[in-house]
Amino acid sequence: DAGVTQSPTHLIKTRGQQVTLRCSPKSGHDTVSWYQQALGQGPQFIFQYYEEEERQRGNFPDRFSGHQFPNYSSELNVNALLLGDSALYLCASSFWVAGPQETQYFGPGTRLLVL
Amino acid sequence: QKEVEQNSGPLSVPEGAIASLNCTYSDRVSQSFFWYRQYSGKSPELIMSIYSNGDKEDGRFTAQLNKASQYVSLLIRDSQPSDSATYLCAVKSGNEKLTFGTGTRLTIIP
User: Would the CB atoms of A43 and B88 count as touching at under 8 Å?
Assistant: First the structure.
């Protein structure tokens, strides 16, 4: 049973560039959430996708956008990269159930360095 | 602003002892509570989830929840060097986003 996968594992970009990160959810899962984790901090919620729509969004600028495909995989796009965007980007998948028991499982992450 | 607070540590515990990790949260309507373990350079791995007041045990791990005090803890019995990691507490209301604490760094001393 394949877990959550993310690509690429590492990425180096320069300021002003654009980046696309990819995530495939765990088998049977239909919801994908993206988080940004800076060094020494807990993950910060970026947004969540379900049924190919953004359901929730955290406190991130419009430079951060995403997409979910019919096979439930997802992309995170970041435009006009800033040095402060350097972080570990985590994808978490879950099976959507109404109520509190929805449980998220994380992929290995993509480490982005902006120079 | 919903907040989750953890002592950043480091918390040092002798091998074989009980490690106790604590977490408080500010949003009284929080319904779901999770503990994730994160090794250095890796992604968070789910250890435990708890939804009701009281204790929940899974192997060497016990999660404790007290909603009245807005407090959740994780006990690790018979601590092993492989338990050395950062432990993240996460809180959720219904289907809303997970809110994480900054994590507690735990070191098990052989």
Answer: yes
Residue B51 has pLDDT above 90, yes or no: yes
Residue A97 amino acid letter: V
Distance from CA of B48 to the nearest CA of A (A): 10
Q: Indicate the helix (H) or strand (E) that contains B4.
A: strand B4-6
Pairing of strands B54-58, B19-25: unpaired
Nearest C-alpha in B relative to A95:
B95
* Number of Cβ atoms within 10 Å of the Cβ of A63: 13
- Average pLDDT, stretch A66-88? 98
User: Which residues are B104's β-sheet partners?
Assistant: B87
Question: What's the one-letter identity of residue A23?
Answer: C
Using omega within 30 degrees of 0 as the cis cutoff, is the peptide bond preceding A43 cis?
Answer: no
User: A45: which residues sit within 8 A by CB, 6+ positions away?
Assistant: A33, A34, A35, A56, A58, B97, B98, B99
**Locus of tokens 């049977």:** A28
Q: Which two tokens stand for residue B20?
A: 């106790």
Residue B94 has pLDDT above 80, yes or no: no
Q: What is the dihedral of CA A102, A57, B85, B106, to 10 degrees?
A: -100
